[in-house]
Each structure stands twice: as structure tokens, then as C-alpha cells.
Design brief:
Bound molecules: adenosine-5'-diphosphate, magnesium ion
Low-confidence stretches: none
CATH class of the largest domain: Alpha Beta
CATH topology of the largest domain: D-amino Acid Aminotransferase, Chain A, domain 1
Number of domains: 3
Order of helices and strands: EHEEHEHEHHEHEEHEEEEEHEEHHEHEEH
Mean pLDDT: 96
CATH superfamily of the largest domain: ATP-grasp fold, B domain
Number of strands: 18
CATH architecture of the largest domain: 2-Layer Sandwich
Strand content: 25-35%
Helix content: 25-40%
Largest sheet: 9 strands, antiparallel
Distance between the termini: 52 Å
Radius of gyration: 20 Å
Amino acid sequence: MSSIIPGAMLGLLGGGQLGRMFTMAAQSMGYRVTVLDPAEGSPAGSIAERHLCADYHDASALHELSTTCAGVTTEFENVPADVLRFLEQHCVVSPPARSVSIAQNRLLEKQFLAANGFSVAPFLAIQNKDDLSTAIDALFFPGILKVSQFGYDGKGQVRIHTPHELSDAFTYLQQQPCVLEQLLPLACEISVIVARGFDDEISLFPVAENQHMHGILDMSIVPARISAGIVQQARKMATDVAIQLDYRGVLCIEFFVLTDGRLFINEIAPRPHNSGHYTLDACITSQFEQQARVLCRLPQGSTALHTPVVMVNLLGDLWQSGEPDWNKVLSNPNAKLHLYGKHEARPGRKMGHFTVLADTVEQALQQAEAIKVSLK
Ligand code: ADP
Ligand code: MG
């Protein structure tokens, strides 16, 4: 099948910061973008050529996307899979509806991974109150009860120490379908962004080491400070997941490195990922440009790293006494600032990020830490 040529209109489901960075990458290659997002003034909707401010199921918005866009992609993993299925009948869609329907549901995702032989934390489905009584196996405690759908940034999760805490936790999570999983002893967390094209070409971005604060990604360190053996295993597992899912597009695999050195998959995100933002400044091709290339059936770009890099998220908490002084970031000539154009800063809300590039990971980390401290 032929490529989608620059100048064409591309559709984007979701208007958040991931979509904004996709839109910028697509526009810089000459494409135009139509965003479908129910919110006014969204980060992507405000820079795209066109913003359809409507629900994802809105019939006239979907008609417009399907008749004016040569290809449609997503930036938001909770786009209803039936919307993607509808669009697949009219234009190129990446990622595929089937992959998204698995990745957007923790239970289906864990069942898929386990069935295909990937290591995941021992888990149990908690769909209703009756399932609570089956969760008495010591294997799951201490554990974490997670809602199956719509959880993000550590939201929709409760840590559980003993079986009798489970019922309260399930009530707290409003008895939504959940997954109970064993709390694993982590040495560190890493992620791999993988792209798989319609021609089966696969590219892998360098492995990122991720540090979280209160369940939200705080910092990504690249290259990850882990052994070559674990890097190789993570790359192999990421490749295999993309193939087994018959994925077409950009996918993130989050891993747990256990204290005994074993590698488990935590979760998969069917889209570019916060832990891949470093690729904008530090790789020949960013995760967002790769997303545009795959969607448009163009050859993929090199994922090679220019230099070691550290990415730090900027959360709304920093805005407590007004706009932060960005000179504190920009006075380091090796730092790059990215802000997402969000109008309201709320605690925990991702407002932007910065990256620091340096000759060594240690130097990048030290400079990033110094900037973080100065911003506080
Ligand atoms: P989210 O969708 O919010 O990113 P995750 O399932 O990735 O949810 O969990 C958020 C963070 O909580 C993880 O990055 C990790 O730090 C911690 N966590 C989640 N599950 C486990 C587990 N089974 N064992 C240890 N830590 C965990
Ligand atoms: Mg996660």
C-alpha cells in the first residue's frame, strides 16, 4: 500500500500533551492535523489545523474524520475501541483497534501477556464482591488493587497488606472491575518504546530508567543504568510483545527489574509515552515523528541517541505561587524546556518537562537534580 503524502490531513483521537507533540512532529513534516477531543482549548486541539470539540462517539465528528483524514492515530489509550473499529473501515488506523482494546484494560492486558509467556506479577481478577472471598491466597499479599480501566499516574490503585483490607479497598474503588496483583520487590523500573510498521519493520528506542514520585513519573534517565543483559532482554520482550499483539504504531512497554535481577512486564501503553519524551531532544527521530512515519507508511527514522539525557516532569505543584522562573532551567545551555500550553495548573497535573543533555549520564543527572532543586 502506498504512503500518505505530506499535505494530507491526519486525524488524532485525544488532545493532550502526547497529541500536541505528535501534531508538532506531523506538521513539521508538512501534514495537517484534525484533533477529536471533547475539551475546549486542549494542548493538541489548540495547535492543530482543526479541532472537533465533541465526544469520541459523536457521529458527525467521526463522519468528518473518516471522510477528510487519510490516516488516524491516538494519543489517549482510553479511546473507545469501537470508534477505532469504525474508522478502520474508512482509513488507515494506527494503532489497531484490537491492540488498543487489550492494552486499555489491565485484566485483558495481563491475561494476554501471561498467555504469551511474558512474566507479569501474579494477579487475580476482582470483578465483583463474590471474587473477594477467592482472594485469600497469601501469594497476593502484600498487593495492589488496581482498577482495570481508566487508571493513570497511580490513580485508581490501593496498596493492600492483608486479605481483610481488600473489601474496603474495593468499595473505595467504587466496586469497579479490578485486578489484584502481588507487590513485587523492585530494583528499578525501565521502559522501552517500540515502533512497528505496516511493513513489519521494527525499531526500538534506547531503554529508559524511570523514577516515580507518588505514582507519577518524575524522571527518566537514558541510557538506563542496568546491565547489558537486562537491556537485551527488555528489547527482545518489547519486540515480541509488538509482534504478538500484531501492533502497528508506537507502543511503550513498562518493566519492573526485580531485586533478584528478573525482568517482569508492568504494563503496556498503546501510544507514545511520557518516558519517551527524551527522544524529542536526544534521538535522531522522536517517538512522535516515528508515530507519524508509521501512520503514513514512510520508512522509520533512526532511534540512535545523540548523548545521555535526563528528562524531568514539571507538575502543576510548581505553579503554587505563579509561573515558575524558567531562567532556572534555561540558564543551563544544555537544558531544553517543553511546556504543554495548559491553562490551569493543578497539583499532580503534567504541565511540561525539561531535558538535560550531557556527555555522561552522571553529569546529566547531576545537572537535572540541580535544576529541580532550584525550581522548588
Ligand atoms: P499507572 O497506570 O498509574 O502508571 P502502574 O500499574 O504502572 O499504574 O503503577 C504505578 C506505579 O506503582 C509503578 O510505576 C510502580 O512504581 C508501582 N507499582 C505498580 N504495581 C506494582 C507492583 N506489582 N509491585 C511493585 N510496585 C508496583
Ligand atoms: Mg505505569
